[in-house]
Write a structure and sequence with these properties.
The complex is a heterodimer of chains A (354) and B (355). Chain A is of the alpha/beta class. Chain A is built from 12 helices and 8 strands. The longest helix of chain A is centred in the N-terminal third of the chain and has 24 residues, at 27-50. The N and C termini of chain A lie far apart (52 Å). With 355 residues, chain B is of the alpha/beta class. Chain B contains 14 helices and 14 strands. Classes of the chains: A alpha/beta (354), B alpha/beta (355).
Chain lengths: 354, 355
């Protein structure tokens, strides 16, 4: 593969030097964003490393390369704000504060998984932290998040709802329908589009005309912005702006964040060699790795050095090892569990967090 | 006036005896249920295309927006899938939406959200989230409604775990079952029948509930059980009158809920009569007729004195033209003939393709 095979180029500005964000973010917050991205990367790598052992009998959709979108977005939300997502849930779940042990138990099909082994990796939820729901049908979560925002509005709650979607989700009719309704009712919802250019192995160009997705969103009278999806601070700030608009009754925002998944659509490895995308394209995007970029800037600013990174790595590594051990030692569900919760029998915890 | 108003107005029903209680129309009974629920619980809201228009969803939503405001009773975009998802998302977050459709045909546009999302969230998230959603639609029939405006889709939903499906046959049940559906913590589909809308009945004022999942005996009998729901019960009752002239005593069992099915009531009646004829407003194959018939065959075999029989719609889309419609829809005479054949000769109606 040569450079000319690159179909989708990174056209962001990278993470700017320290000056532009000095004063807007506390040092601790910046380090948290970095650590959160690093933690997700290491968790995903470990899942990928162990996947071939077949202990995790669930499809996986790794977010390696897409950590800045999840972390930047969740960082701009309150605990009581809700996050919905599609099938690529790992990043959103972890960034919003979902429990790692419960996630790995779910992936190992254990009874104490976050949804009792009924969902697997595409249905990671943790309602205590506002990771409210997912759908494995492309576009499925979009109207549901819109409805959650409608509920917040009707109940007079100070709550914002974000739904993660991909570029292909904008091709589903239900997404256009949801934008229309969200704009009509000015409900506090943010449509966060991680545009990673491929739906499984189908490139954007075979699925959509060459267009600016912001225009598509704006045609529904939804505020529309684009942000560099490899820049955690840019994502954070774009979401914070959208959240402020939503909280003030200004209605929905559509955020397009171009970003790249370094691995295959599903499974542990990369599949670029099959030819649907150029390895050179993947390499080019890996060179703007969101974690490395941000780490460099923090390093230049004096906030982060190798000993600090090493300390983070050790903590994360220990946490991951413990969580895997916990999952592998956890009990399997019983046949009786299969028949539980088909129907709700009495009033349950329908209300969201807070 | 809606195009089918004249047809529905021309239908003649037995009038209830006012001495037995307050008489109201079917439409009024539904309207009362909605009004009571909206007054009772601030989480209840009503949405649907045309719920606030002059036709007011056949009159069932008349006056509700004036009484409860535009935020709680509102018209929707023509976006059935998204609105089903919006209603589901709201239900998952503390609301109790009632999403109304003029026709079940429009619900088909929203099957992804209804079947793959609303019906499954409670299970998929291990019981953490309830989806107290009501989906209401009125089955059309006659006056050229045709293949795309008269579908009775309940049979498609009988096999979907997580859903409940309710089909009232009287104004009393229409109100009581709708109130139960709104108070239920699961997604409940209510399929009304357009031809029942002008029926009057005894309907108590105030809140009451008709339990979901419980059948009721409309007419006790010894010789045969005719079981069904909704408008099929109206036809079955007429058929029972004809049968009594022939000395056949038919028991009529109104399922009221087709999912979950009251299997105990079906088997109890079959045990008594030894014969069963299932009637439905939907297609015979793979639907309510098939499921109820299977329950009888599987669990009531020892009681059967004749084959399990069923009368529903043939395996054909609904024709629009008047004459073809007359061949298509079963009537009381056909039900009576089938019951007679079953009791006298132990013979079920011919194969579906010839009906």
């Amino acid at each position: 593969m040569t450079e000319t095979n690159i179909r989708y180029r990174y056209d962001g500005d990278g993470v700017p030097g320290f000056e532009p964000f000095t004063g807007r973010h506390a040092s601790a917050e910046l380090l948290d964003l970095y650590r959160s991205m690093l933690r997700i990367r290491r968790i995903e790598e470990e899942i990928g490393r162990r996947y071939h052992e077949d202990q995790m009998k669930t499809p996986i959709h790794l977010v390696i390369g897409q950590e800045a979108t999840a972390v930047g977005c969740a960082g701009a939300l309150r605990l009581t704000d809700l996050l919905y997502s599609g099938h690529r849930t790992h990043g959103a779940y972890l960034a919003k504060g979902g429990d790692l042990k419960a996630m790995l138990c779910e992936m190992h099909c254990r009874v104490n998984g976050c949804v009792g082994s009924r969902g697997g990796s595409m249905h990671l939820i943790d309602k205590r932290v506002g990771m409210a729901g997912t759908s494995a049908i492309v576009g499925g979560a979009v109207p549901i998040a819109t409805g959650a925002a409608l509920a917040a509005q009707m109940k007079g709650e100070d709550r914002v709802v974000v739904v993660f979607l991909g570029d292909a989700t904008t091709e589903e009719g239900v997404t256009a329908e949801s934008l229309n309704f969200a704009a009509l009712k000015k409900v506090p919802v943010i449509f966060f589009c991680e545009n990673n250019f491929y739906s499984v192995q189908s490139p954007l160009a075979t699925r959509q005309p060459n267009r600016d997705l912001r225009n598509w969103a704006a045609a529904h009278e939804v505020a529309a912005v684009r942000v560099d999806g490899t820049n955690v601070l840019a994502v954070h700030d774009a979401v914070a702006t959208a959240v402020a608009l939503a909280r003030s009754g200004g209605g929905p925002t559509f955020i397009e964040a171009p970003v790249y998944r370094f691995r295959a659509h599903g499974g542990a490895g990369d599949d670029s060699a099959t030819g649907y995308r150029a390895e050179a394209e993947r390499d080019a995007w890996e060179s703007v790795c969101p974690i490395a970029q941000f780490g460099d800037v923090l390093g230049q600013s004096g906030l982060l050095d190798d000993p600090a990174i090493n300390a983070m790595e050790r903590e994360i590594s220990t946490e991951i090892a413990e969580a895997f051990a916990f999952a592998l030692a956890s009990p399997n569900p019983t046949e009786e569990d299969l028949y539980q919760h088909v129907y709700a029998t009495e009033a349950g915890p329908t209300d969201a967090v807070g | 006036m809606p195009w089918d108003e004249g047809l529905v107005n021309s239908l003649v029903y037995d009038q209830p005896d006012p001495a037995e209680g307050r008489v109201t129309s079917y439409v009024q009974a539904v309207n009362e249920a909605l009004s009571l629920a909206l007054a009772h619980d601030p989480g209840v809201f009503v949405l649907g295309q045309g719920v606030d228009d002059p036709s007011a969803m056949f009159g069932t939503t008349r006056g509700l927006q004036e009484k409860f405001g535009r935020d709680r009773v509102f018209d929707t975009p023509l976006s059935e899938e998204a609105m089903m998802g919006v209603a589901t998302g709201a239900a998952m977050n503390g609301m109790r939406p009632v999403y109304m459709h003029n026709r079940p045909d429009f619900v088909l546009l929203a099957f992804n959200q209804l079947i793959t999302h609303a019906a499954k969230f409670h299970y998929m998230d291990n019981g953490q989230t309830n989806v107290p959603l009501v989906v209401w639609a009125a089955i059309g029939r006659g006056w050229g409604s045709g293949a795309q405006h008269s579908q009775a889709i309940q049979g498609l939903l009988v096999g979907v775990p997580g859903l409940k499906v309710v089909m009232p046959s009287t104004p009393y049940d229409a109100k009581g079952l709708l109130l139960s559906a709104i108070l239920d913590n699961n997604p409940v589909c209510i399929f009304e029948h357009r031809w029942l809308m002008k029926k009057d009945g005894i309907v108590p004022e105030g809140l009451y509930r008709v339990p979901i999942g419980k059948a009721v005996c409309r007419r006790p009998g010894r010789d045969i059980t005719i079981v069904g729901a909704s408008h099929a019960i109206e036809l079955a009752m007429q058929a029972a009158e004809r049968l009594s002239d022939d000395g056949i005593d038919a028991e009529i069992l109104d399922l009221r809920t087709i999912k979950p099915l009251d299997e105990a009531a079906i088997l109890e009646s079959l045990h008594k009569t030894g014969r069963i004829l299932v009637v439905d407003t939907g297609w015979m194959k793979g639907g309510v007729c098939a499921e109820v018939g299977c329950v009888a065959a599987e669990r009531g075999f020892a009681d059967l004195k004749a084959p399990v029989a069923r009368i529903g719609l043939p395996d054909v889309p609904t024709p629009a033209g008047y004459t073809l419609e007359q061949f298509y829809y079963p009537d009381a005479a056909r039900i009576a003939t089938a019951a007679l054949d079953l009791v006298r000769h132990g013979k079920a109606p011919g194969p579906v393709s010839s009906r």
